[in-house]
Amino acid sequence: MFLLGFAGSCSVRFVKRCGSMRKSFIFVVLASLSLGCGQSNDLTVANSTDISTLDPFGMFSRVEISFADHLFQTLTFINREMEVEPLLATSWERLEGDTTWTVHLRDGVRFHNGEVFGAAAVKYSIETIYERNKNGETVGGASVAIPSADIIRIEIVDDLTVNLTTNGPKALLPFYMSQIFMLPPGHYAGKIDAERAEQAVGTGPYLVEERIRDSHVSLIANPDYWGVAPLANRVVFRVIPEVSTRIAELETGGVHIITDLPFDQAALLNDSRGVHVAAIVGGRRVMIGITTNGGNAALKDKRVRQALNYAIDYDAISQGLFGGHVERMSYMFNPPFNHPTLEAYPYDPDRARALLAEAGYPNGLELDAMDTPLGKWIQDFELAQTIEAHLADVGVTLKNGVRTYEWGNYRSKLLSYDLPSLFMQGSGGEFELLTEAADLTITSPSNFYRWENPEYESLWVELQTALDAERRMQIGYRMQEIVHEEAPWIFMHIQPDTYGVSDRIDWKPRPDELIHFWNVTISELAN
Predict the structure, then answer these.
(1) Could you tell me if 349 and 441 lie in one domain?
(2) What CATH number is given to the structural domain containing 394?
(3) Total domains present in the chain
(4) For the segment 84-131, what is each residue's pLDDT rounded down to a tens digit?
(5) Contact status, residue 489 vs residue 344, Cβ threshold 8 Å
(6) DSSP string over 404-471
(7) What is the pLDDT of residue 5?
(8) Is 296 left (phi over 0), alpha (psi -120 to 50) or beta?
(9) Is 12 a residue whose pLDDT tops 60?
(10) What are the residues facing 46 on neighbouring strands?
(11) Which CATH number is 84's domain given?
(12) Which domain holds residue 308?
């Protein structure tokens, strides 16, 4: 979609779109006021970070995937109960031999630009994702699906049927299909990153209306959507980095949901009229990533990495930053796959110093820096500063200290592996064993630590094809024991998800942090 007007406090915007049932362009004139003057059924969420791109291959964070889900769709969909249900695929079955699946596609679906969705689009979308991954290019939300699904052939049976063949049995292929956006070949073929970043074309219930960097992206309901029409005519994703400003906007009715709400501020909101706090046990694993195969040779030694873990007084962190609401993480996979007996690293500075000395650093160790985004994860900068102080107590110092970045820049550093010795990382919960295990296989784009362990890789290969539930669980337990011992990161916590929500909407949080608006209603009652 092309914006032909201009942004202003009260402007007229002209949106050019492609009619879904014809090739000719039509113009829709949308007269509207500023963000605060929208229609009564407009919905607005305030995030701490921006939507950095409209490129489906460049959207990486949960904020961006939430946004993308309104525009782009996948063959399957993960619902609020974390179950797989049909979306652009109506059904699927595994053929004899366990490695090929027949996928039946939904009829009557068109992309925003009028292209017909069908088998050719499925083949293009999947092959493009794998080709990009092979070339070391970004793949967006499919970074876990690629190594997990390991699709090696896409065969077009007819316009509405495809056969997908995987490298070995993949009982969870329908789950992985929920992470690969379906794209129109006519629009995206041959486009470079910069071109894809400016125009989004999918099959979803919304179209891009306007995008203003570091301010907002607004979406307008797709009048030719193939499914049930979305309840909200307009959806706005605003970026408001400051917590206090997000809260003020919620209390005055400027937004309907605010994310990344610190625990102390959540308590204050309980006394506010017309709003409430919505909280859910999240799945995001927060840790300090360690570049295990980079410029500092010391970090290749697991004794050094273990020492970094022993140096952290996590009880003090929990009380000082999180009001005692979080505990230190001892495992790497979310329940029900978490290891039942692993214990979190205790605070033991003497043990930390002894391990450093054993590794050849009796007088301590200097690392280059610790990088963190600013406001991406709850108390991320404050957490990084506290960890820096705890490490200094055992003789581990940072030459360049804690360095902060706006999320878009930090995201680029992650995806290009341009990282110092230590870096803040929050790995979103998939609530499925194989996809969470993918974070630490060397074959995955999301292994930002560049950690590699032969036994882990062997178990990873077995896990991809193991169909017996008990054996899969045992593999997962052993993987977690290896990670606990090898310590490719400094273990922190599972981040609870806390939101401020207007009483005017019926929205409830999902365990995976995704915010979807197409089925949310808003009351006409006063704030």
Answers:
(1) yes
(2) 3.10.105.10
(3) 2
(4) 999 999 999 998 767 999 999 999 999 999 999 999 999 999 999 999
(5) no
(6) EE-HHHHHHHHHTT---SEEEEEE---SSHHHHHGGGSTTSTT-TT----HHHHHHHHHHHH---HHH
(7) 26
(8) beta
(9) no
(10) 238, 258
(11) 3.90.76.10
(12) 281-496
